[in-house]
Q: What sequence folds into this?
């Protein structure tokens, strides 16, 4: 047996403890969502109920917050994916002397605490909209989209940078030699190559936006999102309705993740099949070219 | 100095820096007479414009200008809107003095309440980071070096799954567990280990566990990907040469995984020190985390300049921590965020 690895029993014990720590609290919460008891608890289990779930859609604040969260998430995707892509594409074109600084500035939002991003966003836009007499732009939802995008665009940039490292510049050069314009190369070669990265960046952007609290709590001003409503509720006191909501969110996320995985597999399968067909066609062509007519 | 004069200048500063870099690059190109095509020839007009506009908006409007205006505001006094830009709107250090002494001009007493919250936050965040590292390292090593691929996929999935639940609800889950009549107290009472329910939340045990719990994933992934790229043969060679297990970790795995360790520790520290939801939900009434203090400057004291100063102090602390980690591990920022 591997001497560097932990002894088997110790490893099993450690893994069990680790995942108990990771899942235990969530399982406890899930159980409380189905307990009749008005205070979220596992024991005594007073009886099974679904009425905490049934109450959720009637909760106006929660539904308003959910609507705003979805809207903000969609806007963040639309804003931060193109910003991150531009950031990644410009990375290697920045003058060598400025590259370290460029990298530092674009990655800095990832290393800045979220509340500071929220605070800075609010201060700057209050100032700017005041100076330019555009106070109508000083809006919680808009500010939240801007604040969240500053660091979510950096996540997207890191995803694109990783994918771009595997891009073969010869492809673009070949297209240019064949008379394509720069814009055509971008649209027909680079973007299709980046497609998987675009999809994962969009998914990551939406999820990070949807669950963000630290930046949002400042930048949302008088509006509310699902997370800020939740945080307010939890601080006021705990009810099983919150457990029910958590269970519902997890269920939806799991469905989403499964759907995404199925789509991805499907796409991969389709691409592999197309490649097989192309390779077969090429082989036959070579054969028929090699054989004298 | 009066801020009415300097305020626009400060906001134009980042733009000036970018223009300066652009000019240096242009002049250098002219001097060298390089054959490389210009930016717009290289990218095409449409894509070139998109790149410049997008990165310009991102860097200036979303990153630099907000930070600069926060810093600028932190040096201004709190004034009613009418007096802003007026004669009393002079740059001052009063907000920073308040953080240290609890009063803008009297320096005889320390601001114990806020300083204690600040140092408590830093200390606990460092301890949480250390704890998370110790907890995650064996699992990361196991996944990266000794587990079979099928098992690794399963473990990865199990690690990511809890993070589909958002931060607020994860803290809520711990609150249910640690409550006075929660499962933990019920179980301990049932086992006879304790006679009275323990006030886990009031003692801040809930907070410490919650913070360690919240950012585990951000420790394990950098560690895992760093250790995974270590060739298996190196470990085998060391073992064949008779190295004991602890020397293999100390002299081979840890030095090799240094960038991953550094980025995991930086992320966990930064997120803990800047955490807001977890301390709001899980800390006891007597504890004071620093971020709620900052929050209250804005929305309870309504003193935005002071809040900006407090936020900047927190930011400086995080920068100092990143620099310290880089110095200790002798890495560059680029190597760390790979």
A:
């Amino acid at each position: 047996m591997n001497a560097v690895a932990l002894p088997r029993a110790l490893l099993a014990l450690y893994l069990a403890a680790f995942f108990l720590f990771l899942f235990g609290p969530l399982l406890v919460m899930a159980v409380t969502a189905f307990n009749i008891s008005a205070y979220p608890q596992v024991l005594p289990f007073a009886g099974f109920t679904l009425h905490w779930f049934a109450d959720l859609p009637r909760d106006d604040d929660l539904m308003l917050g959910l609507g705003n969260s979805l809207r903000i998430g969609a806007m963040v995707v639309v804003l931060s994916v193109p910003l991150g892509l531009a950031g990644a594409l410009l990375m290697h074109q920045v003058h060598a002397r400025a590259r370290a600084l460029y990298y530092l500035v674009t990655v800095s939002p990832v290393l800045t605490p979220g509340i500071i991003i929220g605070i800075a966003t609010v201060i700057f836009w209050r100032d700017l909209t005041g100076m330019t007499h555009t106070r109508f732009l000083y809006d919680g939802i808009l500010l939240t989209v801007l604040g969240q995008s500053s660091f979510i665009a950096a996540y997207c940039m890191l995803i694109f940078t990783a994918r771009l490292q595997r891009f073969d510049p010869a492809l673009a050069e070949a297209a240019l030699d064949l008379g394509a314009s720069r814009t055509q190369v971008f649209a027909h070669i680079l973007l299709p190559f980046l497609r998987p990265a675009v999809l994962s960046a969009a998914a990551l952007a939406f999820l990070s936006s949807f669950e963000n609290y630290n930046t949002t709590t400042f930048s949302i001003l008088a509006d509310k999102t699902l997370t800020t409503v939740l945080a307010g509720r939890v601080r006021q006191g705990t009810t099983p309705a919150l457990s029910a909501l958590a269970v519902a969110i997890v269920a939806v996320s799991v469905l989403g993740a499964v759907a995404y995985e199925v789509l991805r597999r499907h796409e991969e399968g389709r691409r592999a099949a197309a490649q097989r067909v192309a390779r077969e066609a090429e082989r036959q062509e070579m054969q028929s070219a090699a054989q004298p007519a | 100095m009066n801020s009415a004069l300097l305020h626009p200048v400060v906001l134009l500063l980042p733009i000036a820096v970018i223009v300066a870099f652009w000019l240096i690059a242009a002049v250098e190109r002219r001097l060298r007479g390089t054959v490389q095509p210009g930016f717009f020839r290289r990218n095409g007009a449409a894509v070139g414009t998109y790149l410049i506009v997008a990165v310009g908006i991102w860097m200036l409007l979303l990153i630099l200008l907000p930070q600069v205006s926060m810093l600028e505001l932190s040096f201004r006094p709190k004034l009613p809107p009418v007096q802003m830009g007026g004669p009393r709107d002079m740059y001052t250090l009063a907000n920073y003095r308040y953080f240290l002494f609890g009063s803008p001009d009297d320096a005889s007493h320390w601001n114990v309440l806020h300083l204690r919250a600040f140092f408590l936050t830093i200390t606990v965040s460092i301890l949480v980071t250390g704890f998370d590292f110790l907890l995650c390292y064996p699992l990361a090593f196991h996944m990266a070096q000794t587990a079979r691929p099928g098992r690794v996929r399963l473990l990865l999935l199990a690690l990511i799954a809890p993070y589909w639940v958002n931060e607020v609800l994860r803290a809520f889950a711990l609150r249910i567990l640690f409550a006075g009549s929660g499962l933990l107290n019920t179980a301990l009472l049932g086992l006879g280990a304790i006679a009275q329910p323990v006030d886990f939340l009031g003692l801040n045990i809930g907070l410490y566990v919650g913070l360690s719990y919240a950012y585990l994933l951000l420790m394990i992934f950098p560690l895992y990907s760093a250790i995974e790229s270590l060739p298996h043969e190196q470990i085998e060679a060391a073992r064949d040469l008779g190295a004991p297990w602890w020397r293999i970790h100390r002299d081979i795995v840890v030095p090799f995984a240094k960038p991953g360790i550094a980025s995991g520790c930086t992320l966990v520290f930064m997120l803990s020190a800047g955490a807001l939801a977890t301390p709001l939900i899980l800390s006891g009434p007597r504890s004071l985390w620093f971020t709620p203090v900052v929050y209250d400057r804005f929305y309870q004291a309504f003193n935005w300049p002071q809040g900006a100063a407090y936020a900047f102090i927190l930011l400086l602390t995080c920068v100092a921590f990143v620099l310290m980690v880089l110095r200790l591990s002798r890495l560059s920022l680029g190597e760390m965020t790979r």
